[in-house]
Each structure stands twice: as C-alpha cells, then as structure tokens.
Amino acid sequence: xxxxxxxxxxxxxxGNEACAEGALAAGCEFSAGYPIxxxxxxxxxxxxxxxxxxxxxxxxxxxxxxxxxxxxASWTGKxxxxxxxxxxxxxxxxxxxxxxxxxxxxxxxxVQRGAPSTGMPTVGxxxxxxxAKRGSHGDYEIIALSPSxxxxxxxxxxxxxxxxxKYRTPVFILSDSFVGHMREEVIIPEAVRIERVYRKIPxxxxxxxxxxxxxxxxxxxxxxxxxxxxxHVTSSCHDETGKRNLIDVSSLDMYVRRLSNKILTHKEEIxxxxxxxxxxxxxxxxxxPVARAAAAAARRARQAGIPAGTxxxxxxxxxxxxxxxxxxxxxxxxxxxxxxxxxxxxxxKAAAAPFTKVSFLPPRLIGQIQDPEDIxxxxxxxxx
Amino acid sequence: MSxxxxxxxxxxxxxxxxxxxxxxxGNGIVAQSILRAIDELGMEMDDFVFASGIxxxxxxxxxxxxxxxxxxxxxRPVAFALGIKMGLPEKKVMVVSGDGDLAAIGGxxxxxxxxxxxxxxxxxxxxxxxxxxxxxxxxxxxxGIKTTTTPYGSFENDFDISRLVIGxxxxxxxxxxxxxxxxxTRSIKKAITKKGFGFIEVYSQCPIQFGRKSGISSSVHMMxxxxxxxxxxxxxxxxxDEELKEKIVVGEFVDSEKPEMVxxxxxMKARAxxxxx
Lengths: 384, 277
What we know:
The complex is a heterodimer. Chain A has two domains: about 5-195, Rossmann fold (3-Layer(aba) Sandwich), CATH 3.40.50; about 270-384, Rossmann fold. Helices cover about 35% and strands about 20% of the residues of chain A. Chain A is built from 13 helices and 15 strands. Chain A has helices spanning about 15-25, 40-50, 65-75, 85-100, 130-135, 150-165, 175-180, 250-265, 265-270, 290-305, 320-330, 345-350, 370-384, and strands at about 10-15, 30-35, 55-60, 80-85, 105-110, 145, 170-175, 185-190, 230-235, 275, 280-285, 310-315, 315, 335, 355-360. In chain A, strands 3-2-4-5-7-6-13 form a seven-stranded mixed β-sheet, with helices on both faces. Chain A has a five-stranded mixed β-sheet with strand order 10-12-11-14-15, sandwiched between helices. In chain A, helix 3 packs parallel to helix 4 (about 85-100) and helix 11 (about 320-330) packs across helix 12. The longest helix of chain A has 18 residues, at about 150-165. Chain B has one domain: Rossmann fold (3-Layer(aba) Sandwich). Helices cover about 40% and strands about 15% of the residues of chain B. Chain B has eleven helices and eight strands. Chain B has helices at about 25-40, 75-85, 100-105, 105-115, 160-170, 180-195, 205-215, 220-230, 235, 240-245, 260-275; strands at about 50, 70, 90-100, 120-125, 170-175, 195-205, 230, 250-255. Chain B has an eight-stranded mixed β-sheet, with helices on both faces. In chain B, helix 6 (about 180-195) links the parallel strand 5 (about 170-175) and strand 6. In chain B, helix 3 (about 100-105) crosses helix 4. Chain B is globular. The interface between A and B is large, with 44 and 40 residues.
C-alpha cells in the first residue's frame, strides 16, 4: 500500500469516511461488504479509494459472503475489513466464530442502528454491544472498541487493524449511526506517524510438518496460504498444527481455553479507558457517544461544586473489569449510562458492586443520548 | 523387495493415515480424478489452494490433500474461495463440496460467483442426500424417495444443479458420474486451465445413506444404475423431457470464453490509478 494514500491534514469529515481513511492508513488491502444504512459510506469510500492504492472492495451478495471473502483474503496475508450494521452482523455471526476459531485477523465495523430487526436505521443505539461478545456460538473472547467521534473512527480503525494483526483475531468497531454520520474535525497524521502492525508469519521454507500455527496463547505465527506451508485450516476442533480432532475432549478443552486465553492474558495491553475521576464521589461510567454527554454532565456538576467524575470504556471487550474495580474502590456512587436498556450494565455492576453502590440511568428515549442536565439531576439524586 | 507406492500418494498429507469415507463411498473416485487431473497437468499441490464446506465431500481435500486447505463452514466455501482468489490471483483455487453445501445452504454464493465468472474450479459431489447427518432429503433428492426427514416420501421437486450454474453464467460446466472417472478427469483438467468459473457436478454413490433409503444399498448396484441411466448430451437432445425423466445427462454442457472477474478487477484498478494520478 502506497503511503501517498494517507492524505495527511485537517478535515471536516463524516465519521464513516474517517473510518475508511483509517482503514487505508492502517494498510487495508481488501474489503467486502453489502449495502446497509447507516454503514454504506464506509463501503462507498473504500470502493473509490482502495483500487487507487492497488486494493479492492467487493460488493457481495450478502453479509455472510462478505465476511467469508474477507476471512479468505486474510488467509492469503492481506489486511482486511468488512462493515455493516446490526442486521448484517446477525448474518455474519457464524463466520465471525469461524474467524475466532481459526485465528483470522479481520476488522468488523458495526455502525449500530435502532433495533431489534429492521428497527430505525438512521438512529444510533448501542444495541449490539453484547452481541459482539456473545453473538456467535460457544465460549470465545473478542476485541471491541467504541469510538465517540469521527476522529476516533479514524484512530480506532487503525488500532483495530493493529490489534487484529497482533492477536490474530476479529476486532469489532462498535460505532453507531450518530458517530458514523457525525461530521467533525478529523486530523489525519503523516503516514510515518501511523503505527502499522503486521502479523507474524512462519519463516519462508519452514517444514510444513513442523509448523505450529494455531492455539498459542502468545499468538502463533500465521501460516498464510500460497507460501508452501500446506496449511490445514479448520474450525473443527484442532491441535496446534491444525490437525482435526473430534474424539478427544481434552483437545476441545485446549481449543476453547487457549483461544480465550490468547485474548485474556493480553487484556491489560488491549484495554483502553479514559479516567477522569480523581477525587470524585460520583463516577459516571459510559462509552461511545454517551461518554460525551457524561463528560459534559461531570463538568457542569463540578462547576456547581459537586465532586463528579467519569470513566469511559474505549475497549468494551475483553471487558476491562480491573479498570472498573479500580474506579469502584474510590467512588461512593457509580452511575452507568448507555444508549440502551442496560447491556454492559450487568458486567459493570458485577465488577463494581462489591465496592460501591451502582445504578443505571437509561436515556429518556431509546435512541436519544442522555441530556447532560438529566445526568446532573441524577448525580444530585444519588448523592441525596 | 521394494514397497509399492500409489503414484498419487505424494499428493496426500503425510500425517493422514486413514480415510473417513464409508465403505463404497464415491468420494475416493472423485478424489482420485482430481489428483490425476493435477498430475496430468504437470502441476503441484503448491499451485493450488483448496476450500471446502461441511459434509462428506468437504472432507475430500480436508485433511487429505497435502496443500493449503480451508475447511470452512457449511455452505460458504465458494465465498471463502473468492476471498482467497482475490489475495492469490496467481494460484488455482478449487472448491470441493457436496450438493447440500453448494446448492442448498450455499446456493446464493454458487450462482453469484458463477455470474461473476471468477476464475476457480468448483467440484460438486452430488450424492442427492445429506450423508454426514444421517440421510436427510435435500434439494437434489429425487421426488418420492423416503429419507429420515421425508419418511412418507419426498414431496419436493429436485434441482438440476448444472443447469442452474449454466443459467448463472459459468464459463465451463460439465456433469459426470463416478462411473466416468476418465471423462471426469478430462473435464477437471479443462476447468482448472479455463480462465473463469469451472463447475463440475459428479453424481456419486452414497450406499450407506442414499442407498439404504432408496432400496439399492450396494455401491456396485448404484454405479451400475448410473451407467444404465447416463446419456450423452447429443443423444439427450433428441429425447423428450418425459423420455429424459430417469436419465442422467452427462458431458460438457458449456465451454465458452467470457469476461472473467479477476482480470476485470485488474482493468478496473488500472482505471482507478489512472484517474488518481
């Protein structure tokens, strides 16, 4: 990928377009997707710009084939991404499990919209945040980031590619219709200032019989296709060499645990949070665009002399329970804010409740982010 | 005394010691036709990437072929193969899967990649039943056949997969049965060398699941039945639909030149770069 495809500078840009620019900056070479509101602008921009950089965007027959093609291309060594909204994710879930099972780097952007089902496509909600972790069948870990601005649509997409490559895993960007369609200042740095991570690959000429390309908690080198590694890739239960084992339950145990541990043992280096709760009695915990309302409310409360703070989760998965616990040990009260009926709330509560009192403030209307005034009123209420 | 080794043994993954096919399965004949085609073309396994789905036929390349093999999920191998071809356009990409995988759950990907005329070879092993799950009816099961999910006889019309793929626009389509291994090999060679979507449907006996349900549980009898019912394309053209009802029309239906997508993408990229300059 040529570095001149990174148009360094300051822009007034839509979140979805910033996401596409982030993908190009991260070195995306192949993308496939299916049109869906509110994610289409990402596809449109990649369809225009990827071929200019020698890559390609394919519009597929559905979301199932979109993620399948992306996984197939990743196995040839390409950096890959697909983008969709909730209905498309629902179709992709089986293949997302496949990507987890065979340790395939790929970035999946979910620009969330009003749901269930067809719902309200142009309204942003945080309705699919647990689906990202629990949607495909079986026990598994995944990485998910939650951007709150067009700038972060760019930044997080770069981080998502780097995490995908480093940990050989699908990485979600859990955006929503608000952030995707929001236009704000986006600063695109010089190409040389953008960190690009590339997956480990076994050395050329490696003995195919000796390659251990799977199930290493410290991430096995990926024996990509086309280099004579004679790789056997199957999401059937397999060992470190990729050999299928459908008989020995201890093999299944290893398959499940090592895949999960690959992410969990690196949780600390994956976790990104924003802490602003020094001396705060009430801490507002939120993520995505809701965190902007939470930050505004905390500012107003502090101006009024109320000791309020915020903890913003940028990484939603693996769930940053230690960060929540660290905050909960200091706070008198915790208020969780989400643009849904409480999806991350049980996880946050489980980590915080042993140390402090935790409550949830839903939006007045689903699809309408909490008004900072309402949040301030809630802060006053919980402090009595 | 020297050990006698099968000439195609070099194509088999060294760690594989046994076959998982049932006794009398047609998979072995199909596997041998594929490997013979590769051998006769003077190609090596490293020239290929294989993709398969879920089902008995998907286990032909996985894990037996000593090559890069993506054993994927049910119904989607053609979509995975498209992504592989995008990343490795210089390699031959081959899908080996069954009729349920390719024409039922995966029908959409089959027709759309035939329409795109993506350069790949798809071998559809058609045993007209779901074998791995224990003999359920599929879209290729003949009407009236009793299966585990049609205990009173199948009540659906069956699919002619080759005609479907012809209609979708593939540049090479052939059908054979397991009693035509030489013809099958010849067609596979053509499909591999053809620039475009090459589709080969192979009627393949499943004595355990289909045979037991249909009343002919001997592999030999099933193959004799294939031989009796097979009819060439030219001969079939002179028969009425009624006369063709019990027949299996075999041969190469389509062998045409038409735009192929990987090449078209290269042209598109050149246009994009030209405009960007």
